[in-house]
Design a protein that fits this description.
The protein has about 220 residues and is α/β, with parallel strands linked by helices. It is built from 7 helices and 9 strands, in the order αααββαβαβαββαβββ.
């Protein structure tokens, strides 16, 4: 990571407290813990929120979007069970923080953002930090990125009524999809594992994400 030592060390105590909290909540995947310890979360939020960046809560990033709370980022990342060899599709680049964590855990990350300004800001920061194995696209993420698939895993960072069929079709046999499912009345995180033409599903607990806006998600304005 191309980052001056003093910039990385800033908020080191806050970052350590964040790590301790997510471990106390049951995250045991050491690769995920190490990844979250390496990525300076405060750089992915506005300057005025730096002092809040490591608290276990979401924060606004503009354009009615948020950066997810650290525990949720850790839980979703751990649920993918990445070993370092995978190609991962992320739907919803947002701030780029989850993208950075995935980049620490996988061989290649393909990330799609619907909001152009957010996608450009995230790419600029991730490039500055030295991440070279991330592929970016500004588009409707509910279509996926078929021409570069299939993928070993898909992570969706916004909630829809179901996982779009296009994304299901782009996952390899044995691959996983982690996604929040529901609406503003209630959502839960789920892990789907593809076995041939069938999927097994595991519930991870309640959550709250912004809506998955797109052709095969939630219509804009609803």
């Amino acid at each position: 990571m191309n980052l001056p030592t003093h910039t990385f060390q800033k908020y080191a105590g806050h970052r350590q407290k964040m790590i301790e909290e997510i471990m106390n909540r049951g995250i045991k995947d050491l690769r995920v813990i190490e990844a979250m310890n390496r990525v300076p979360r405060h750089l992915f939020v506005r300057d005025s929120f730096h002092h809040k960046a490591y608290g276990d809560h979401p924060l606004p990033i503009g354009e009615s979007q948020t950066i997810s709370q650290p525990y949720v980022v850790a839980a979703m990342s751990a649920a993918l069970q990445l070993t370092g060899e995978e190609r991962v599709l992320e739907i919803g680049t947002g701030s780029g923080y989850q993208t950075a964590i995935l980049s620490e855990l996988a061989a290649q990350v393909f990330t799609i953002e619907r909001v152009k300004s957010l996608g450009q800001q995230a790419k600029q920061l991730l490039d500055k930090l030295g991440y070279t194995h991330i592929n970016y696209k500004i588009f409707d993420g509910t279509y996926g990125w078929r021409e570069l698939g299939p993928y070993d895993a898909v992570l969706i960072t916004a909630a829809g009524p179901e996982v779009p069929q296009a994304l299901i079709e782009q996952v390899k046999d044995g691959g996983r999809i982690v996604a929040p499912i529901g609406d503003d009345q209630g959502q839960e995180l789920r892990v789907y594992t593809k076995r041939g033409k069938r999927f097994s599903m595991k519930r991870m607990g309640d959550c709250f994400f912004v809506p998955l806006i797109g052709k095969y998600g939630v219509p804009e304005g609803e």
